[in-house]
């Protein structure tokens, strides 16, 4: 039995990892070790660890990382807490492989801890680009610490190889989130209305604003431009998503 440790830190990566977790769980020759961290364990972000438990997954470890701060110092300290927590978790679990997805700071902490423990890392969604954000540096750093790479397009596979990785270890498998389109049972409009307490009878826009983290002071300017455009549509219901657990220096609340 090979022990496969999968780390999830938020709803964003959990949704993409869900069917991978199911496949590992159902494999006769694999043992799933699910480690939950980051926003999943925060009441501010909905205690989404409860959804993982409702989905029937056995959680091997819970690693607290988030502080009540969204400053650069807070994010840096959260990464440090994660590094300490993952060091203990990997020493206890002794996985054969650690599976990581994306470019969040808690995932960077997991990658560092796995690398220092000489545990092979399988990285999903490497080689991608997020202009103006420190996600790129984190993502490429995880790529350099990983042994196996699962990219979503040939272009991203080529970029991982350009970073110096052995082509034999880089696989274009497509985006795992696409599995949700064929496997998930979609909720009805009525269920969404009941959950959010709104009516979707008219026109609605779902709006997510991502600040450019490498351009200090740009958030207020860019968000103002967004509001100016949206103000032209008086007959449209505006639904804003909440900001993420990141350095909020450039964000407008």
Helix and strand topology:
Elements: E1 2-8, H1 11-26, E2 30-37, H2 49-54, E3 59-63, H3 72-93, E4 97-101, H4 105-116, E5 121-124, H5 135-145, E6 148-151, H6 154-162, E7 170-172, H7 179-183, H8 189-196, E8 203-207, H9 218-230, E9 236-240
Parallel strand pairs: 1-2, 1-4, 2-3, 4-5, 5-6, 6-7, 8-9
Helix pairs in contact: 3-4, 4-5
Structural write-up:
The chain is 40% helix and 18% strand. It is an alpha/beta fold and 253 residues long. The chain folds into 2 domains: 2-183, Rossmann fold; 189-240, no CATH class. The strands form 2 sheets. It has a 7-stranded parallel β-sheet with strand order 3-2-1-4-5-6-7, with helices on both faces. Strands 8-9 form a two-stranded parallel sheet. Helix 6 (154-162) links the parallel strand 6 (148-151) and strand 7. Helix 3 (72-93) crosses helix 4 (105-116) and helix 4 (105-116) packs parallel to helix 5 (135-145). The longest helix has 22 residues, at 72-93. The chain starts with a strand and ends in a 13-residue tail after the last strand.
Keywords for this entry:
2 domains, alpha/beta, two-stranded parallel sheet, seven-stranded parallel beta sheet, 253 residues, Rossmann fold
């Amino acid at each position: 039995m090979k022990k496969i440790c999968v780390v999830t830190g938020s709803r964003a990566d959990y949704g993409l990892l869900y069917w991978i977790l199911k496949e590992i769980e159902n494999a006769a020759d694999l043992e799933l070790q699910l480690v939950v961290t980051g926003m999943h364990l925060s009441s501010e972000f909905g205690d989404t660890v409860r959804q993982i438990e409702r989905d029937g997954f056995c959680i091997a470890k819970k690693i607290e990382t988030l502080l009540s701060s969204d400053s650069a110092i807070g994010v840096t300290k959260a990464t440090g807490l994660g590094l300490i927590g993952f060091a203990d978790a990997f020493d206890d679990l002794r996985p054969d492989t650690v599976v990581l997805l994306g470019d969040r700071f808690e995932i960077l902490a997991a990658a560092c801890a796995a690398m220092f423990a000489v545990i092979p890392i399988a990285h999903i969604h490497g080689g991608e680009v997020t202009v103006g954000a420190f996600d790129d540096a984190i993502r490429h750093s995880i790529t350099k610490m990983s042994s196996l790479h699962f990219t979503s397009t040939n272009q991203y596979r080529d970029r991982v190889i350009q970073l110096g990785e052995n082509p034999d270890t880089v696989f274009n498998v497509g985006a795992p989130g696409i599995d949700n389109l064929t496997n998930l049972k979609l909720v009805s409009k009525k269920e969404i209305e009941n959950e959010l307490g709104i009516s979707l009878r008219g026109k609605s826009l779902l709006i997510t604003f991502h600040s450019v983290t490498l351009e200090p002071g740009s958030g207020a300017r860019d968000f103002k431009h967004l509001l100016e455009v949206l103000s032209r549509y008086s007959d449209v219901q505006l639904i804003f998503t909440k900001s993420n657990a990141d350095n909020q220096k450039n964000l407008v609340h």
